[in-house]
Structure formats: structure tokens, C-alpha cells
Design goal:
The structure is a single chain. The protein has 347 residues and is α/β, with parallel strands linked by helices. 17% of the residues lie in helices and 28% in strands. It contains six helices and 30 strands. Strands 13-14-17-20-23-26-29 form a seven-stranded mixed β-sheet, covered by helices on one side. A six-stranded parallel β-sheet has the order 15-18-21-24-27-30, with no helix packed on it. It has a five-stranded parallel β-sheet with strand order 16-19-22-25-28, with no helix packed on it. It starts with 21 loop residues before the first strand and ends in a 6-residue tail after the last strand.
């Protein structure tokens, strides 16, 4: 499912759909495709809407990723279930639904096996979280069957810490419960209808990491979790030192200091006197000029960080930005694509 606009992540999503936001220099959705491939899913239907051509042009037919990919386009918003029904022509056997804009390494094979063992019509992948208030809570019985749902409850309603991950294993019969040609939601409409009809609806607690990368804070923390090894994803480049991944063609001056964990993308140039601090991620073709300092920031492709400029922890520098000489970008500030800061500017 790759139709989201990611409005809470603007300005980062002003020029790219949310599934294409980079996580350690690869689109979020690419990490999901690799996860699916690891678990034996090699036929993928992608539901697209916002800036669909960006996704199509990057992934193509999926052959570069070892899978087959086709696309189902929403001409108008159809909701989570409606968008899946829009792909009904491709879904004539058991299938798995997963978001293209989350970070996860959940054991999908185990969820499918549990679905098969319970002979379920629908199985919802669940995870335990410390703060379930922003999510849909799912309450299950001892045998795993679902008793009820609570959408974004108050603390007084919290009777469970298991939440809906948006990972579903479904039989084609589910389409009998999704009305065509309108917006339909799985959690608020389809699953309650399955419960009311006494269909076999189960929850399966997933093993592994799961994060809804829906806010700027979670986008930053997702990078930290990757670099800390809390989630299994492929980090591009070779490991130059412990935790320091460097892409092909990158040049790092001997008098630059790089402190890991960090990622330096392809064809970057790091000049003398630069200090690159922990949890920094540089996209491809980033230039960091003499004596500049970057600590725990994300710098997207083709950006230029000027002589003696400072970029503080949690800052995000968009594509093709120019941070001028001795300029300073404070913690958690964000520059949209192609922003130019003149010399000595403070943001």
C-alpha cells in the first residue's frame, strides 16, 4: 500500500510520496520489498495514488529487486480496504497486505503460518507497544480470535498493548465485505463486519521491530534504530569502520573525522577538518566543505554544506540544498528541497 501523501512529514513529502522517503539512503518502500522477498513473496501489487509515477519509475516491473510488480491506481481516495479491492483482478488467492511506508522486520512467515493453522478468513499482524494511544488497539481472546477493536482509545479504555500494524493475511472471500467504488476502511468497517458475521478473524503477535514512520520525530528515530541495529535492514555501502558505512565513489579527506554509527552515500566528498558525528546520514553526492560540522543530522542527496557551517543533531537538509559558509542549522530544523542559506545565516 503506497498511496499515502504523508502530510505530517512535510516539507519532506512536498516533492516525493511518503513511501519514497529515504531511510539510510534507500526508499522506505524498498526496505519493505526486500522484506517481502526474504519471506518468499515475489508477486507484489502496489496500490498507488499520490505522485504514483515516482514510485512506478523507481521500481518498474520489480525485476531489479527479484520480484514481479504491478500497480493499481486510485483515481480518488478509496481508503485502506477500497484501495486493496481496486486491485481485485490480481488477488485471486490468499494474499498479504502491508504498508509501503513503515519500517519493520516482522516475521511475515510466522504470521502466514498462524493464519493457515487457524484456518482464518483474516489475520491481523499485531505488535506490543508502550504507548498505544495513537493506534488502533486489538483485543484478542486466549485462542487468538479477535474480540473487539478500539480506535485511538483514551487511557481509561486501554485494556491491551497490542496494536494493529496494518499487516493483514486475507482470503479472497474478504472482498464480499468490501463495497466497490467507495472509500472503505479495514479497521472501522471491514473487520467489524467480519466479527458481526462470525467469520474467523484472528490476531497474530509479530516477532520483530515495527515503527509507523508517520511523523518527523519517528522518521529521525527510525534512522537511529537502524544504525543501532535494532531492526534488520540492508544498509548500503561497505563498512569502512565499525558502524560507518560508505558508498561507492565517496571521498573522505584523511584530516576529516567520522564518528560512527554513520552512513556516507555514493560519490560524497568530505573535505579536510570536517567533523561528522554519530547518527549522521549523508545521501549521494553530498559535498561537506572544509571545517564543517554535522552531528546526528540527515542530509539528502546533492546538498552542499559550506565551509565551517554547522548542522546540529536532528536537523534534516533536503535535496540540493546549499548551507552557506559559517551558517548554522539548529537541532530539529528542516530545510525543504533546494533551499539556499546565505553565509552566516542561522536557522
Amino acid at each position: 500500500m503506497a498511496g499515502g501523501e504523508g502530510t505530517r512529514l512535510r516539507p519532506l513529502t512536498s516533492n516525493a510520496p511518503k513511501p519514497m522517503l529515504p531511510l539510510v539512503n534507500e526508499p522506505m518502500m524498498e526496505h519493505i520489498v526486500r522484506l517481502l522477498k526474504r519471506h518468499g513473496f515475489d508477486e507484489i501489487v502496489v496500490t498507488v495514488a499520490f505522485m504514483a509515477n515516482t514510485i512506478r519509475s523507481y521500481f518498474g516491473d520489480g525485476s531489479d529487486f527479484g520480484v514481479r510488480m504491478v500497480y493499481a491506481t486510485e483515481e480518488s481516495p478509496l481508503g485502506t480496504a477500497g484501495s486493496v479491492r481496486n486491485a481485485i483482478d490480481e488477488l485471486d488467492e490468499r494474499f498479504l497486505v502491508i504498508s509501503g511506508d513503515v519500517l519493520t522486520d516482522i516475521d511475515l512467515t510466522a504470521i502466514v503460518k498462524e493464519h493457515e493453522a487457524k484456518q482464518a478468513l483474516a489475520t491481523i499482524g499485531l505488535v506490543r507497544v508502550d504507548n498505544p494511544l495513537e493506534f488502533g488497539i486489538v483485543i484478542t481472546r486466549d485462542d487468538g480470535s479477535i474480540e473487539r477493536f478500539l480506535e485511538k482509545p483514551s487511557w481509561g479504555q486501554v485494556f491491551s498493548d497490542t496494536i494493529n500494524t496494518g499487516i493483514f493475511v486475507l482470503e479472497p472471500e474478504v472482498f464480499d465485505f468490501i463495497e466497490p467504488d467507495r472509500s472503505v476502511d479495514f479497521s472501522s468497517e471491514v473487520f467489524p463486519a467480519l466479527l458481526a458475521a462470525r467469520k474467523r478473524l484472528f490476531g497474530a503477535i509479530g516477532e520483530g521491530y515495527w515503527e509507523d514512520v508517520g511523523t518527523l520525530e519517528s522518521y529521525l528515530s527510525a534512522h537511529k534504530d537502524i544504525l543501532d541495529g535494532r531492526v534488520r535492514v540492508d544498509v548500503p555501502g561497505f563498512e569502512m569502520a565499525i558502524g560507518v558505512h560508505v558508498g561507492e565513489g565517496a571521498e573522505i579527506h584523511p584530516e576529516a573525522k567520522v564518528i560512527g554509527p554513520a552512513v556516507i552515500g555514493e560519490n560524497c566528498r568530505i573535505e579536510a577538518g570536517v567533523r561528522l558525528g554519530p547518527y549522521s546520514v549523508l545521501g549521494r553526492s553530498v559535498l561537506v566543505e572544509v571545517d564543517a560540522s554535522i552531528t546526528g543530522a540527515l542530509v539528502w542527496p546533492n546538498a552542499r554544506i559550506g565551509h565551517a557551517a554547522t548542522v546540529h543533531a536532528g536537523a534534516i537538509i533536503g535535496r540540493s540544498c546549499h548551507v552557506g559558509r559559517n551558517a548554522s542549522v539548529s537541532a530539529h530544523a528542516m530545510l525543504g528541497d533546494k533551499t539556499a542559506l546565505t553565509d552566516y545565516t542561522q536557522v
